[in-house]
TrEMBL record:
<feature type="domain" description="Endonuclease/exonuclease/phosphatase">
    <location>
        <begin position="31"/>
        <end position="244"/>
    </location>
</feature>
<dbReference type="InterPro" id="IPR036691">
    <property type="entry name" value="Endo/exonu/phosph_ase_sf"/>
</dbReference>
<dbReference type="InterPro" id="IPR005135">
    <property type="entry name" value="Endo/exonuclease/phosphatase"/>
</dbReference>
<dbReference type="GO" id="GO:0006506">
    <property type="term" value="P:GPI anchor biosynthetic process"/>
</dbReference>
<dbReference type="GO" id="GO:0016020">
    <property type="term" value="C:membrane"/>
</dbReference>
<protein>
    <recommendedName>
        <fullName>Endonuclease/exonuclease/phosphatase domain-containing protein</fullName>
    </recommendedName>
</protein>
<dbReference type="Pfam" id="PF03372">
    <property type="entry name" value="Exo_endo_phos"/>
</dbReference>
<dbReference type="InterPro" id="IPR051916">
    <property type="entry name" value="GPI-anchor_lipid_remodeler"/>
</dbReference>
<dbReference type="GO" id="GO:0003824">
    <property type="term" value="F:catalytic activity"/>
</dbReference>
Amino acid sequence: MNQEDAIILKILTVNTHKGFTAFNRRFILHELRDAIRATHADIVFLQEVLGAHDRHASKLARWPATSQYEFLADSIWGDYAYGRNAVYPSGHHGNALLSKFPIKRYNNLDVSIGKHEKRGMLHCVLHHPTLNRNIHAICVHLGLQEKHRSSQLGYLCRLIDEEIPPDAPLVVAGDFNDWRQRGQRTLMRSSGLKEVFNETHGSVSRTFPARFPLLKLDRIYVRNVSHFVPVALASRPWRHLSDHAPLAVELTL
């Protein structure tokens, strides 16, 4: 494929915090949808997105009639997939992927350790109309305890080794909760993944808390892409829309 035929994709990942500001002070899903649309992303990785919540639906006037991921995707991203991770009496939440390209198939892998912290990895296989290969995308939300993350990263490495062709374009993105960066070293060593901000700037990005980012929790990893450029996103309005700052990158296939 020559330069004129290169395929460029824009990727965005954001922990939506269930459509509320930090500490759940205000419902801001509509503002979040505007901000996500303004990035012009082709593929959006979402964590902590609500599939349903009866109590919020009965109390909040602006609560959407559909799931949060359908509301965010509406009229822009023609395909979406949802992986339900946590289920409770009033509803459920999990990871979601919004795509401007057809999602051929998807599978949600439950990587929860114990009963109190439900986590998952949503693996989607996308079809780009001008690409002769499938694009694999894995939306990740790992646990808060390091020993749990270690096991979950083992699941991720096995998923990549066993289910994804070694030459297929791959994007792994989401909330890794990996503030000590031990998972970063594991993924680079075991699966040949490159973290786009680390490769470009020499360090993964600080994303939490969004107003004054100190911890390096969120990542975008790639494999089998010819080029990538991290995209700078303005702190406003994002710092008011979640407790995590989003990350974005442009990929050339």
